[in-house]
Design goal:
GO terms for molecular function: acyltransferase activity. The protein is an alpha/beta fold. Helices cover 51% and strands 15% of the residues. The protein has 11 helices and 9 strands. 32% of the residues are buried.
Length: 314
């Protein structure tokens, strides 16, 4: 009897979660459809302003401030607040830019003058396209990071990207469909993803990974001087396929513009026997991302529980 009652309660909870997710997703999609009725710059500016007002009212804002306090103990509360509000504006712009992606992405490698999108490291894109060797590009949740694979495709470079789907299944389905249309091959971060990426590298292709996500296990490293666990996947793939690794990032510029940068390959740390040092490589990735975040702190997603401190936030 008790077992059947628990089953019924479990089904009710699951059903309520589905309803909640559907309502949330419907509200988001309705808002995006409304935004699409207006000129791109005005619509994006509007959601930016609204997010700066609404974001600070949420529990996620408190988590962001707690993260900022620990990462920047030398900064004042007012400075933490400014960074957090900039973050909300960046996130709102990221969502709205999905709606206007075709209008916003005007990058042309042969153009004489830059448009909204400019690219640094064009020669690296061309090198990777023509080399026919496996490679890995890593990035972080900075600026509009979604533009990077689109830029790569502009150069004829097909990168298989690993991404973490949103928790809301209805939002995840919609986002995945939109990304597949403009961003080529995508691999949701779930069981079997590592094997899919490995096959791509084995075939001489390229993969892209985000390396700043929370990871419960893996290499113990530091980020902003605080202990974190970093996914060792990239290092393990390098160990297996001996491929080059390139940092890449997106930077928001004034006037609704973006700069996409691809940097020269990093030197992978090795042990005395010549094998890849997994922990040192994971730390190197963290150090690179930290340097990006310190340069543009308002363009990173501070509301993620990267340091697993959610239990400290009330």
């Amino acid at each position: 009897m008790a077992s059947s009652t628990r089953m019924v309660l479990t089904r009710i909870v699951i059903a309520l979660r589905r309803v909640r997710d559907w309502v949330t997703a419907t509200a988001i999609f309705t808002l995006l459809r409304l935004i699409a009725l207006f000129p791109a710059d005005k619509a994006i500016g509007f959601v930016d302003a609204m997010a700066r007002r609404i974001g600070p009212m949420t529990k996620r804002h408190r988590l962001a401030l707690r993260n900022l306090e620990r990462a920047y103990p030398e900064k004042t509360r007012a400075e933490h607040e400014t960074i957090a509000r900039d973050m909300w504006g960046n996130m709102a712009r990221l969502a709205a830019e999905y709606v206007f992606l075709d209008k916003l992405f005007d990058f042309d490698p042969d153009a004489s003058e830059p448009g909204r999108i400019e690219v640094g490291g064009s020669e690296i894109f061309l090198k990777l396209r023509d080399s026919n060797k496996p490679f890995i590009v890593f990035t972080a949740h900075t600026g509009n990071f979604e533009l990077l694979p689109i830029a790569a495709a502009t150069y004829g470079l097909d990168v298989m990207a690993l991404f973490r789907p949103p928790n809301n299944p209805y939002v995840a389905e919609k986002v995945l469909a939109a990304r597949r249309t403009s961003m080529g091959h995508l691999v949701p971060s779930r069981a079997g993803a590592a094997f899919t990426l490995a096959r791509r590298l084995e075939a001489g292709g390229g993969v892209g990974v985000l390396v700043d996500q929370k990871f419960h296990k893996g290499a113990e490293t530091s980020f902003f001087g605080l202990t974190v666990h970093t996914n060792p996947l990239l290092a393990k793939l390098v160990r297996q396929y001996d491929c080059e690794v390139y940092p890449a990032r997106s930077i928001r510029l004034p006037g609704g513009r973006h700069r996409l940068e691809v940097e020269p390959p990093i030197t992978i740390p090795r042990k005395p026997d010549g094998s890849v040092d997994i922990t040192a490589t994971a730390q190197l990735l963290n150090d690179k991302v930290e340097s990006w975040v310190r340069e543009y702190p308002g363009q990173w997603q501070w509301f993620h529980d990267r340091w697993e401190i959610k239990h400290l936030v009330k």
